[in-house]
Design brief:
35% of the residues lie in helices and 17% in strands. The chain is built from 11 helices and 15 strands. The strands form 4 sheets. The chain has an 8-stranded parallel sheet with strand order 3-13-12-10-9-6-5-4. The chain has a 3-stranded antiparallel sheet with strand order 11-15-14, with no helix packed on it.
């Protein structure tokens, strides 16, 4: 596999491990991926929900937990460690600043347009971006809005961009009717996003790698998307089924048990559709049930606690801890293909072997 360069960072393989909240990709998984030459990602979303004071001071709990996980990952690996943050989180900028202060190599920003980023004033009064930011987009239009805004306000552009197709797990940047529409397939939108970045690469004289995500499952998939012009891929679902993943055994078991028909599109309180593994909890919600909850923190800008049928933060935390029946697991469209738990090293070796076979045919 070719190497991946993002600015002055160099990963020996072009694989970014996707950020998975709440608590699914923390220091154990991210450091293991980084040790194998990929880019390991800590998911900051709801990261403090296991802290004892989260109900009373969720911002401080999130900040403290993120600091701890970044420091742990640094102790476990000298590789590239990034942080994934939902722009829709009400404390997204605080988490972004924390990631920068703790020396995260990269920050991936999704579920919204990352227009506000950490800057310092230069001697001429202009703003200089002080972090390597990688937006996650689902269309060339979103990429264009971000790049135009950054150019106008910072005279700078993102260091890379992830383009995520509709086969991804978790929250999707598509309308429900677009998810199965071939016009919105990753193979279709990837070249369109690449075309946007090319103009800015030429103008700013820098490489802006485009990373393909959503439904990437095998080494052959990696080869195919690199042939289509991507410089790397982002993968999440495959990494859940590893020993090093920070999820509970019960969470991983849900992946092993799920069938293709169990992977469903849900309406998330975030305001976006999402792909998850159907279970009793989701069936209860789809039948019209409401799980009463108190919301002392309003962790999501787009969630209305008065109308939301359940608290997604609590549901995902329950699943992370193993209480799947009081929560649920997000998963990509290929989760049903997983049948065993392996190590991160075994997974990377398998992907490399599959890539080499595809490249030689």
């Amino acid at each position: 596999m070719p190497k991946l360069r993002i600015g002055d960072l160099e990963a020996s393989i072009p694989i970014v491990q996707g950020g998975m909240g709440v608590g699914i990709s923390l220091s154990s998984l991210s450091s293991s991926v980084a040790n194998e030459g990929g880019i390991g990602i800590i998911a900051a979303t709801g990261i403090g929900m296991l802290e004892t004071d989260f109900d009373k001071n969720f911002k401080e709990a999130n900040k403290r937990a993120l600091q701890r996980e970044i420091r742990r990952a640094r102790e476990l690996s000298t590789g590239i460690i990034g942080v994934n943050i939902l722009v829709a989180s009400s404390d997204s900028y605080d988490l972004l600043q924390t990631a920068v202060d703790e020396g995260a190599d990269l920050v991936f920003l999704g579920a919204g347009l990352p227009l506000r980023v950490p800057t310092v004033l230069s001697s001429d009064g202009s703003k200089n971006v002080i972090a390597r930011i990688v937006p996650i987009v689902s269309s060339a239009r979103a990429a264009r809005v971000i790049f135009q805004y950054w150019e106008r306000h910072y005279n700078h552009v993102p260091d890379a961009v992830v383009v995520e197709g509709p086969l991804a797990g978790g929250h999707l940047g598509f309308k429900k009717e677009q998810i199965t529409n071939p016009d919105y397939a990753l193979e279709k939108i990837l070249p369109e996003v690449i075309a946007v970045t090319k103009r800015y690469e030429q103008y700013f004289g820098k490489s802006i790698p485009v990373i393909a995500a959503g439904g990437v499952y095998t080494g052959a998939d990696i080869h195919r998307f690199l042939q289509l012009g991507a410089q790397a891929v982002q993968m999440a679902t495959r990494f859940v089924a590893t020993h090093e993943c920070d999820a509970s055994p019960e969470f991983k078991e849900a992946y092993l048990r799920c069938k293709k028909e169990d992977l469903v599109i849900i309406d998330s309180p975030v305001g976006l559709p999402g792909r998850a593994i159907r279970n009793g909890f989701l069936e209860q919600i789809s039948s019209g049930a409401r799980i009463p909850f108190k919301c002392p923190w309003k962790c999501l800008k787009t969630c209305d606690p008065r109308s939301a049928p359940y608290c997604i933060g609590v549901a995902l935390t329950n699943a992370k801890k193993g209480d799947i029946e009081r929560g649920f697991a997000f998963a990509g469209a290929n989760a049903h293909r997983i049948d065993t738990i392996i190590s991160v090293r075994e997974l990377i070796e398998t992907l490399q072997m599959e890539y080499e076979i595809a490249a030689s045919t």
